[in-house]
Design goal:
By secondary structure, the chain is mostly helical. 63% of the residues lie in helices and 0% in strands. The chain has one domain.
């Protein structure tokens, strides 16, 4: 459980950095959809998109870790190992291929849906 928390926590810090990078390039980064994130994380994406992908995943992870804990939310995903950013990107891309109908949702929703589907928490 803690490894995903660390991974997901590391994700959100970079979201801000990546968003600034996209904004500096004149791109809209404030309303990134799951489809946008899937395109940014896809094999063959350009370097700026891949940096955005890494940053978004890192930032989402950091936020998730920040809101967990004894007085925070309960975990929504429970992998039994440390999840790397690349593994999370791969899990998200696999989920996105199977859920084209959800690509209009916010990117963080898709990312979390992918994590929950891959690593459900015991009830």
């Amino acid at each position: 459980m803690a490894p995903l928390h660390s991974f997901l926590a590391a994700t959100l810090l970079t979201v801000g950095v990546a968003s600034v990078g996209h904004a500096q390039q004149g791109e809209r980064a404030s309303t990134t959809s799951s489809g946008d994130l899937a395109r940014s994380c896809a094999p063959g994406a350009d370097a700026a998109d891949l940096r955005f992908c890494d940053g978004f995943i890192s930032g989402a992870g950091q936020f998730y870790e920040a809101v967990l804990g004894p007085k925070g939310i309960r975990p929504i995903a429970c992998p039994e190992h440390l999840v790397s950013q690349q593994e999370m990107a791969d899990v998200f891309l696999a989920w996105a291929r199977d859920h084209g109908d959800l690509m209009q949702e916010k990117a963080v929703q898709g990312l979390m849906r992918a994590a929950v589907a891959k690593w459900p928490c015991p009830r």
